[in-house]
Amino acid sequence: MINALRGMKDLMGEESRRYRYITETAAEIARRYGFEYIETPILEETRLFKRSVGESSDIVGKEMYQFTDKGGNDVCLRPEGTAGVVRAFTQAKLDRRQGLKSRFFYFGPMFRYERPQKGRLRQFHQFGVESFGEASVEEDFTLIVMLSEIFDALGIRYKVLLNSLGCSECMPPYRERLVSHLHDIEDGLCDDCRRRIATNPIRVLDCKNESCQELLKEAPRITHHLCESCNADFERLKSLLDDAGIAYEVDPNLVRGLDYYSGTAFEFVSDEIGAQSAIAGGGRYDRLVEFLGGKPTPGIGFAIGIERIMDLVQMPEPAREGWYLGTMIPEALPALLRFARARRREGERVVVEYAPKGLKAHLKGADRSNARYCGVVGEDEYAREEIWVKDLEAKEEQKRSLAS
Ligand SMILES: [Zn+2]
Ligand SMILES: [Zn+2]
User: Fold this and answer.
1) Does the N-terminal or the C-terminal CB of the chain have fewer CB atoms within 10 Å?
2) Beta carbons of 53 and 60 less than 8 angstroms apart
3) Quick one: which ligand is closest to 230's CA?
4) CA 313 to CA 22: how far, in whole Å?
């Protein structure tokens, strides 16, 4: 027997139903906000992710699902969705169309080559959106509202964490301040943090180590060092959220793991899968398009970790739907297949049992396939070109023309 690869799993039955319910619900809401579906290749050149996700990140450092293909190309299964969408946006030259706003949503598998353990798969799924060309903080507000609407629709409770990561004007001086503080407390920090002081000091702030967090309590806060324009945007965003009745908490330690984020950063967390676990995250990346060789274009997006919310989703009870059809005599099968085809053309879901069986067995089959109607052709019905139909919800029986 051949099994799936380590850290990879099948979505089937209840899980595949949940996956589709999540992606369809989110896609429908994204559509209402003017976003359109984009599908980019799962495989990209490794350098796309090295440049966009950042050499110093854990993803590029340790977790890339990277290999050389038969043509000798250095390729990588996408570890996240944003880089590919930005690449597609730039490749289609949409960055050269002044004033154009492009809004995309996507969903699908992402890959990280890490040690498989509970809750961490090598192939997992995300739903995400990316918005290009809109620099106003109203867009940040709109994305947060859209994300809360998605979780509301899925019946998931959440808390919104909010931060601003500043801009190219206020971030560098803040970073210097932070680095000098980190050097003061360096001896007490964990190995990862000490390494990050040189490579990515901002990431030290979200170290999960409690002793590090204790030491970081006195660290300078980015929100206290924002320039005038970043500060005005952050205040505006908070007042819009207040106005919309969306509760949030400012978390100065909320820094996104990826290097290209600037301005608004947000995370939706849930207590239902462990203390304050992130179920979605996003923010601005106004420098990323330029980073990847396009014209400077503001951008903002978010991604939902689908596996993280899989068990939290409140799904509506599946309603009985469509038809189950069967015969008691083999010669009735061609007429039954014609009847099935006519129903499917009307848009109905139809399951046909080809083997002739008794009525009781067919009723059981109809129940198992969750059909609303059970249609059976017996000898008498066949002679009169009729089909016996039972409505399993209304518990009513009737005869109907088999040619209808
Ligand atoms: Zn700024
Ligand atoms: Zn640490």
Assistant:
1) N
2) yes
3) 1
4) 8
Q: For residue 321, give the amino acid letter.
A: E
Q: Phi first, then psi: what are they for 284, rounded to 5°?
A: -80, 145
**What's the predicted TM-score (pTM) here?**
0.90
For the CA of 228, the nearest ligand: 1
How far is 308 from 270, CA to CA, in rounded Å? 10
Q: In tens digits, what is the pLDDT along the chain, a chain of 404 residues? A: 999 999 999 999 999 999 999 999 999 999 999 999 999 999 999 999 988 877 667 777 778 999 999 999 999 999 999 999 999 999 999 999 888 899 999 999 999 998 877 767 999 999 999 999 999 999 999 999 999 999 999 999 999 999 999 998 999 999 999 999 999 999 999 998 999 898 889 889 988 888 999 989 889 999 999 999 999 999 999 999 999 999 999 999 898 766 678 899 999 999 887 777 899 999 999 989 998 999 999 999 999 999 999 999 999 888 899 999 999 999 999 999 999 999 999 999 999 999 999 999 999 999 999 999 999 999 999 999 999 999 999 999 999 999 98
CA of 176 to the centre of ligand 1 (A): 15
> Which superfamily is assigned to 323-401 in CATH?
Anticodon-binding domain (3.40.50.800)
- Domain limits of the chain? 13-170+226-312, 323-401
Q: Looking at domain 13-170+226-312, which of 3.30.420.40, 3.40.50.150, 3.30.930.10, 2.40.50.140 is its CATH number? A: 3.30.930.10
Surrounding residues of ion ligand 2, Cβ less than 5 A = 190, 193, 207, 209, 212
What is the distance between the terminal CA atoms of the chain, rounded to a whole angstrom? 47
CB atoms within 10 A of CB 50: 18
